[in-house]
Amino acid sequence: MTPEDKSRIFNLAIEVLKENDRGAYTVPTKGLYPFQWNWDSCFTALGQAHFDEDRAWTEMETLFEHQWPDGMVPHIIFHVHDDGYFPGPDVWGTGRATPTSGITQPPIAGFALRQLFERSADRTAAERRARALLPKIEKWFAWFYANRDPQGQGLVAILHPWEAGRDNSIDWDEAFDRVPTEGIAPYTRRDTQHADPAHRPTKAQYDRYLWLVEHFRGLGWDNARLHDASPFQVVDPGFNAILIRGCQDLAVVAEALGNADTAARNRNRAARGLAALENLWSDRHGQYLCLDRITGTLIDSPSIGGLIPVFAAIPKSRAAAIGQVIQQQATRLKYIIASHDPDDPRFEAKRYWRGPVWLVVNYLIVDGLLAAGETEVAARVLRSSLDLIEQSGFAEYYDPLTGAPCGGGRFTWTAAMVLEFLDIAA
Length: 426
Ligand code: GLC
Description:
The chain has helices spanning about 5-20, 40-50, 55-65, 90, 110-120, 125-150, 160-165, 175, 190-195, 205-220, 225-230, 235-255, 260-275, 315-330, 360-370, 375-390, 410-425, and strands at about 35, 75, 235, 280, 285-290, 290, 295-300, 395-400, 405. The chain is mainly alpha-helical. A hairpin with a 4-residue loop joins strand 6 (about 290) and strand 7 (about 295-300).
């Protein structure tokens, strides 16, 4: 890429971020996702930090203003009324003043906090704002271990596929079969009016997404009860790695702010998590797998969820094996990293999280590979990511076989990641 290309793409990315900015939060994209999403916002803040530090902090602060009293940070905050999205506030029925969903999403906030804190030019503001966010993020992390790891195994479970952020991954298929569909209220999907139905989750999946929501709503969203009452409890290695990395990064910020207790607690959580993560390793696949906590067995589904752990401080040999899986993919695909192993017959190049490339995931993996010294494969993923942008613009996700843009266009988190990638590439 020439310096002119870089500066053109840099400016286009900022344009997308500004276009989706609603003042104190940013929507993922117009139409399809008209509210604030949890992990999207944390990625967005990383992008905003390149041109407006103050706005980046605000993005995260707005998210944490809607933290629940028990510590949970919801996956959607319905700041405005918009009929274009389903399921809306009435289906969730969480009873919050500003309506929110009742489930959570990958805790990128720990990582994002450290990035904003270390990169901010205005040190006084950074210290003040980090000091205010620190206890809130810690409260969220404590919530995870108390409510999603009730047996103290060191790893947390997701209770709904949407919590993983990888809505319709093949990882959930088997465990999802156990979720009934009887008795759900009639509904009309809105996502298929904004995007190609062939690229979206199926009706059978949607019925089960809603059954779980109605089940949890029936339990009054009491997080102390949801885990044991859920027929779907999956330990996702990617999700846990994000939490582990979050704990490590939170500890670094806490230490810098002179908060030794918070630092120690979070180092301890990370160490226990890293040790427990070993139980999810598959030698056969050269990557981690999800664990079905109901059956106690590993789920034979080699997805991106098992490559994301390179984002945490996993053993060097594991990081190298993950690097090899990615190199192998690169011999089969025009663009990497596919969200599911392309050699698996269940792979679908265009269907959301069952095959397509997502730049936020590429970003987490590039960061981890670089830290592990896997520079060659990291550079390859970086190049592929920037090639996709040049070829297909700021799409929600991309077909790894052709590079075709899929889902929503002018997508916030894709734009944010481009700013990050250009920086890493420089
Ligand atoms: C989809 C994605 C999820 C994301 C949301 C908003 O539901 O699967 O990860 O947070 O869209 O972009």
